[in-house]
Amino acid sequence: MDKENKLSILRHSTAHLLAVAVLRMFPEAKLGIGPAIEDGFYYDFDLPRTLIPEDLPILEDKMRAIIKENYAFEKQEIDAKKAAELFKKAKQTYKVELIKDIQKTLEGTKSLQGDLVPNKITIYKTGSFVDLCAGPHLDSTGEIKADALKLLKIAGAYWRGDEKNKMLQRIYGTAFENKD
Questions:
Q1: Per-residue pLDDT tens for 118-146?
Q2: Beta pairing class for 167-175 and 149-158
Q3: Domain residues of the chain, as ranges?
Q4: What per-residue confidence (pLDDT) applies to 120?
Q5: pLDDT digits (tens, 9 = 90+) for 32-41
Q6: Residues of the chain with pLDDT > 90: what percent?
Q7: For residues 29 and 35, is the Cβ–Cβ distance under 8 A?
Q8: Could you tell me which of 27, 51, 158, 168 has the fewest CB atoms within 10 Å of its CB?
Q9: Pairs from 119-123 (Cβ < 8 Å, separation ≥ 24)
Q10: CATH topology of domain 3-175
């Protein structure tokens, strides 16, 4: 695996770590998306209150605690209908919306052999946290260096980039393989 791809996987895994930390701070948080980007990662949240810059070090501390807990990133493929039920039960409405869109895309899709493609969704479990995600990820949170991550800023972002949708709070961060 090349260095750039490895760094992207590290940052994507760190975005999931941020989501776990946010849910510990705000159990009622609704999750948007959390990809790796060129210089780090971000995750979008629908939260009960507006974040302030002083929240970032608190979230970083929670992330470092989760690193110590060394949870595995467990990949699972499940039926799309079951995935929708799982996220609906967790009141993760944005994830349910994404699953419905994935289902529409997969509906009637055929493989090269002409077989219908199974209506499967990939999720990742990290401790009790579950996220809709194609991956890949590190093997565990313990592989993230606690001193090599930093939450950078908070911004607003419309859900799905559409100004007609709700404004979510986006937390930007970065992570590296080591502190240097």
A1: 678 999 999 999 999 999 999 999 999 99
A2: antiparallel
A3: 3-175
A4: 86
A5: 999 999 999 9
A6: 83
A7: no
A8: 27
A9: 119/79, 119/80, 119/81, 120/77, 120/78, 120/79, 120/80, 121/77, 121/78, 121/79, 121/80, 121/83, 122/75, 122/76, 122/77, 123/75, 123/76, 123/77, 123/78, 123/83, 123/86
A10: Threonyl-tRNA Synthetase; Chain A, domain 2 (3.30.980)
